[in-house]
UniProtKB/TrEMBL annotation:
<dbReference type="InterPro" id="IPR020552">
    <property type="entry name" value="Inositol_monoPase_Li-sen"/>
</dbReference>
<comment type="pathway">
    <text>Polyol metabolism; myo-inositol biosynthesis; myo-inositol from D-glucose 6-phosphate: step 2/2.</text>
</comment>
<dbReference type="InterPro" id="IPR000760">
    <property type="entry name" value="Inositol_monophosphatase-like"/>
</dbReference>
<dbReference type="InterPro" id="IPR033942">
    <property type="entry name" value="IMPase"/>
</dbReference>
<dbReference type="InterPro" id="IPR020583">
    <property type="entry name" value="Inositol_monoP_metal-BS"/>
</dbReference>
<dbReference type="GO" id="GO:0006021">
    <property type="term" value="P:inositol biosynthetic process"/>
</dbReference>
<feature type="binding site">
    <location>
        <position position="90"/>
    </location>
    <ligand>
        <name>Mg(2+) 2</name>
    </ligand>
</feature>
<feature type="binding site">
    <location>
        <position position="92"/>
    </location>
    <ligand>
        <name>Mg(2+) 1</name>
    </ligand>
</feature>
<feature type="binding site">
    <location>
        <position position="70"/>
    </location>
    <ligand>
        <name>Mg(2+) 1</name>
    </ligand>
</feature>
<keyword id="KW-0479">Metal-binding</keyword>
<dbReference type="GO" id="GO:0046854">
    <property type="term" value="P:phosphatidylinositol phosphate biosynthetic process"/>
</dbReference>
<dbReference type="GO" id="GO:0046872">
    <property type="term" value="F:metal ion binding"/>
</dbReference>
<feature type="binding site">
    <location>
        <position position="93"/>
    </location>
    <ligand>
        <name>Mg(2+) 2</name>
    </ligand>
</feature>
<feature type="binding site">
    <location>
        <position position="220"/>
    </location>
    <ligand>
        <name>Mg(2+) 2</name>
    </ligand>
</feature>
<dbReference type="GO" id="GO:0008934">
    <property type="term" value="F:inositol monophosphate 1-phosphatase activity"/>
</dbReference>
<keyword id="KW-0460">Magnesium</keyword>
<dbReference type="Pfam" id="PF00459">
    <property type="entry name" value="Inositol_P"/>
</dbReference>
Length: 277
């Protein structure tokens, strides 16, 4: 059973590359920008078109599989992870970056069976970096093996987070309060790349020691979660305990030490679960 799901993974890589090419093409053109849950939760026709392209291609090749896609869920499709082989898709992670042509945009495809992630593919399409991770088989970027940083001293760490898309003053206050506490541990620095999937790949490749966020969705982190753990990293909930894909909370770090130190400083706030309705 060594190569179980390899054909699905090969398909994910091929379709992510194709989707990335479409995103690159659309980067230069006119964009129609629409709002979803808040004035800063944005979507474009490209997000929708690319999701349709990815989903049609998967349904054609794997008709019995289930699909969870960001834009389909926004349009009212359920977001429930069952035991059936399930593709968890963010067609364009970093939509705000895309709109502003800030060059960190990714196609993210995670794949779970029996609710366990089997592989993840993140294609950072402007950088042309193809990140892959397969359970028990390691993580790679453009074919080169990824390894998390060996730095376990939080005071010598670079931490990534995001400001998220909520503009509710109370949520923003919690986000800044956590950032202030972590910055003042002190750490070397903090960064926001604007794409959860790319943030996780940066941790997997050793460019940062950790990434955390509350408010992300399962499609932002499923693929990155496999890539981080296969690169030797750890995944955790923002209050400690195991990562729950549907909880909209994540800590991805190079080590348990760094993850647990960050968890002590994060001010958690409520976010409705992805599978709530
Ligand atoms: C967003 C990005 C962003 C993160 C948000 C996500 P999207 O995904 O990953 O970095 O802060 O929480 O929703 O909307 O661009 O696919």
């Amino acid at each position: 059973m060594a190569d179980l799901w390899q054909d699905a993974m090969d398909h994910a890589v091929a379709i992510a590359r194709k989707a990335g090419a479409v995103i690159r093409d659309h980067l230069q053109g006119e964009m129609t920008v629409m709002c979803k849950s808040s004035p800063a939760d944005l979507v474009t026709m490209t997000d929708q078109k690319v999701e349709e392209l990815i989903m049609a291609s998967i349904m054609e090749k794997f008709p019995t599989h289930s699909l969870i896609g960001e834009e389909s869920v926004s349009a009212g499709q359920p977001c429930i992870l069952t035991d059936n082989p399930t593709w968890i898709i963010d067609p364009l992670d970093g939509t705000t970056n895309f709109i502003h042509r800030f060059p960190f945009v990714a196609v993210s495809i995670g794949f779970a069976v029996n609710k366990e992630l089997e592989f993840g593919v993140v294609y950072s399409c402007i950088e042309d970096k193809m990140y892959t991770g397969k359970r028990g088989k390691g993580a790679f970027c453009n074919g080169k093996r990824l390894q998390v940083s060996g730095q376990t001293d939080i005071k010598q760490s670079l931490i990534i987070t995001e400001l998220g898309s909520s503009r509710d003053p109370e949520v923003v206050r919690h986000i800044f309060s956590s950032m202030q506490k972590i910055l003042c541990i002190p750490v070397h620095g903090m960064r926001c790349a604007g794409s959860a999937a790319i943030n996780m790949c940066l941790v997997a490749g050793g460019a940062a020691e950790a990434y955390y966020e509350i408010g992300i969705h399962c499609w932002d982190i499923s693929a990155g979660a496999v890539i981080v753990s296969e690169a030797g990293g750890v995944l955790m909930d923002v209050e400690g305990g195991p990562l729950d894909l549907m909880s909209r909370r994540v800590v991805a770090a190079n080590s348990r030490n760094v993850a647990e130190r960050i968890v002590k400083e994060i001010e958690a706030f409520p976010a409705e679960r992805d599978d709530a309705s």
